[in-house]
Amino acid sequence: MDKSKYKYIDTKEYDRVFVTSDIQGEYTHLKRALEKAGFTKQDVLIICGDIVDKGRSNIDTLNYIRRLTEEYNVYVLMGNRDYMYSLMKSESERELNFFLSYAKKNPNSLYSEMCLKAGVELKYDAKTVKILVSQYKNEIDFLSSLPVILETDDFYFVHAGLKNENIYEQDINACLTMRDFISVEHTFSKYCVVGHVPVCNLHNDMSDVLPYIDTQRRKLFIDGGLTTVNGGKLNLLYLPDRNAENYELISV
pTM of the entire structure? Predict the structure, then answer.
C-alpha cells in the first residue's frame, strides 16, 4: 500500500477523541451529533469513510465535512463509495467504465447531484464526467486524497477492516470493501475501529444499532446503518481510553 494512504496522529494533545462512519450524504445527522457532544476545537473527530452516496444531500455533506477539516481537528478516511469518485480522474477506460457502472446503479449519488447543480444532463459517459471533473475539481480532489488507514497510539481506524497489523502490506481494496472482517482471525494489539457493515447484521437483529465489539480480537464495529436499514442511526462514539468497551455513544 502506498504510504500516502496511511496517516498517524498523536491524540494526546486533544481533550476528547470521537469517531463516526458511513454518513452517506446525510450531514444533518452528523451536525446534530456533534452539537449533542459539544464538540470543540480541543477535540478530534475521525470519520471512517463513506461520507457520500445513498443520502439526500451529498454535495452539502461533502462541503460541510470539508469545512470541518479546515476549521476543526477532523480527519476523514476513504470509504469504498468515496474511492469511486477518484476514478473520475482516471485515464484508464476500464476504471472510468467501472465508475460509470457504479454511478448508474446508485441514483441517490453525488454524481447525480453534481449533474443537477451544474445544469448538466444526467448521462453516464466520459464527456459528462469530464465536465464534472472540471466544475467540481476541489470536491473530487478532496475525496481522491483521503487516506485509507489512520493510526493512533490507542487505535487503528479504517473503513472496512485490516488483514493484520502489517500496515504497508495491506490491500487497499480489502481495506475499503471487505465484508468479513468479523471473521479475520488476527488478534490486534489495539482495537481496530471500522464502519462499512451495519452493526445490525452482526447482532442478527435489524433493530440493534449499538456498536458491536469483539473483545477477544479487539475489533469495534460502529456503522449504525443510517441510510441502509429501517430505523438506522448515525453512531458517534467518544473513546475516552484505549479500552473500546468504555465508549460513550450518541446516536441520531
Answer: 0.97
